[in-house]
Amino acid sequence: MMLFKSYPSKYLLRDRNEIRTGPFGFSIMTTCLAIIVTVTILYAGIWQVESEVLMYLFGFKLPLAFKFTSVGSTAFLYLVFSNSVGMMYMLIISCMNYFIIHTILFGFLMQIYFSNEELLKGLFSLIYHEQDYTMFYLFMSLSLLRILLCFPLIYYILVLSLMCINGGRGWDKKAAHELEQEHIGEQVKTLHERLAFLEKKYDHVL
């Protein structure tokens, strides 16, 4: 089917077994780490401004329990170093859940914001008050960027998982099919050695 066809000339549509490096020539693990560190920095920025934004929109701050849950989910991303294929699939599912949930929340906050702005616009004009929306725009920009980073992170974790299946760790710039060929070569060598051992040990039986 054309839907599942790979296109070697197009980076995102290439066979993931052929991917060796990230978009800037760095190894796949380095690329994943760069995205995760960026996500962490963005979350630190969101932490600083979200209280003021939530106080403006809803009149209360987010409980610390929810904040620490977000910290835990961010720290969970660093398990990409575990070299476990199962853990990487869990990371992919976690990123997909994060994208879906936070996209819904993002749309909800935008709707609340525009509703409040429409209601308060007339009041602020009467009292000659000019509302500063800098923190809100900063909060939404950081949140949107963090949501969008889910896409490249999921893609490169998928590539990394293929490398790990074939014995790689993603630091060296070798594609999954190259790692698989090396692994098969080692297996063939081991099998030949085992066959030679058995023939030498039991040739008298034959």
UniProtKB/TrEMBL annotation:
Entry's transmembrane regions: 21-44, 64-81, 88-114, 134-165
Protein's recorded name: Uncharacterized protein
Domain of life: Eukaryota
Keywords: Membrane, Transmembrane, Transmembrane helix
